[in-house]
Amino acid sequence: MARTTIFPAVAGTVIAASLPFAVQSQETGVSIDFYGQLNLGIISVDDGFGSESAFTDNDNSNSRVGVIYKQGLSNGGEFRLHFESALGLTGSSSISRGNDDFKENFRRTDLRKFELIYQTPNIGTFSIGQGSIATDGSAEADFSGTSVIAYSSLQDQAGSQQFRLSTGANAGTTVGNAFSAFDGSRRFRVRYDTPTYNGFGLAVSAGEEVLARGNDGEFYDLGLKYDKDYGAYKVAGRLGYSIRDSAEELLLGSVAILHEPTGLNLAVAGGRQQQGDDNYVYVKGGLKRDWFAFGETAVSLDYYQGDDFQTSGSESTSYGIAAVQKLDAYGVELYASYRRFEFENAGPQIEDIDVAFVGARWKF
Predict the structure, then answer these.
(1) b/e sequence 279-307, b meaning 16+ C-beta within 10 Å
(2) Cα–Cα nearest to 127, from 15, 243, 9
(3) 71: Cβ–Cβ under 8 A, 6 or more apart, which residues?
(4) What's the whole-number mean pLDDT along residues 110-119?
(5) Nearest-CA neighbor of 60 among 164, 173, 183?
(6) Neighbouring residues of 133: CB distance < 8 A, sequence distance ≥ 6
(7) Who has the most CB within 10 Å: 9, 45, 119, 268?
(8) How many contiguous H segments (helices) and E segments (strands) does the chain have?
(9) Residue 328 to residue 324: CA distance in whole angstroms
(10) 331 CB contacts (<8 Å, ≥6 apart)?
């Protein structure tokens, strides 16, 4: 069956609907915001037969720069042009045994955001261009303060690392094949977000991969979010449904709660592939406290259990510990983590992978 793309027609419609507001309205305020971050560290990987360490960008939240142009409109709305790009540094999810050189290699896929946004005062927000699809973040409700080094998408930390058999040979499975949170990402898409009502907000998007060569997969997503304060408690919930390339259907979600007086927090995420048996549950408990005058301290423990990734009947298990220390005066977070990845299937015994990571993120 021939593929039909919806984007040229929809893109023209959205641009035509949005731009006149900016052109015809009298200027009520213009601002340009520049921002970015460097997030670098040292990763040490032990695959059961040896360990290697490397200097790397942290793909949990990679180094990036961005700029946002904002123009207020006379009707109370706002027009924004948002550009954001990774720096193209070697990332923790791409390095593997014997292939861990740190270098700069900018690729088209490092472009994270290039979008036009029109936010209305009452109707909602319309977006077009490269940016987050509606399920981006659906598996990431989390108040722990340690997401910079530990969150549900475990493959971002060591996705290209190969599991090895007890003989030392490659098992034919990487961490990225064996672990997934099904979370959405960024694509060229049109997106609509409703206004928030009583803590609830809904987003819908339709998008296509345009940056990766040889990949024109389409994405249709629906995302529901909930954010509410209940006295001493903060609650966040996310639910997403995604159809990817007209074949793969995914259901995913997460919920998090924080007790603000004590800093105790809990996050749970999970997802299932609707046409297959791939599924997972992720649980994370944490504590945030102001033990030091220079910034908040956060610690967390987490556990991941997945089934039927890569091969039917397989089990993917991971557990980790993480700590983050903020240095407020410098915009810096220092962090350290340890994680074990375990994978089992019907074949020969597969060795575990241990990963330790120390680093720092500086936001500017």
Answers:
(1) bbebbbebbbeeeeeebbbbbbbbebebe
(2) 15
(3) 22, 27, 28, 29, 30, 78, 79, 80
(4) 98
(5) 183
(6) 184, 185, 186, 187, 189, 191, 205, 207, 219, 221, 242
(7) 45
(8) 3, 19
(9) 12
(10) 362, 363, 364
Give the contacts of 291 (CB within 8 A, at least 6 positions apart). 297
- What is this structure's pTM? 0.90
Task: Name residues whose C-beta falls within 8 Å of residue 16's C-beta, 6 or more positions apart in sequence.
Answer: none
Task: Decide if 69 contacts 56 (C-beta within 8 A).
Answer: no
Cα gap 335→359, rounded to integer Å: 6
Structure-model confidence comparison of residues 214 and 89, the more confident one:
89
Asked whether 141 and 236 are in contact (CB, 8 A), the reply is yes
* Phi and psi torsions of 260, nearest 5°: -65, -40
For 217-244, write each residue's pLDDT tens digit: 999 999 999 999 999 999 999 999 999 8
At residue 38, does pLDDT exceed 80? Answer: yes
How many Cβ atoms from other residues are within 10 Å of residue 236's Cβ? Answer: 19
Task: Compute the distance between CA of residue 241 and CA of residue 134 in angstroms, rounded to an integer.
Answer: 9
**Encoding tokens for residue 23?**
């052109």
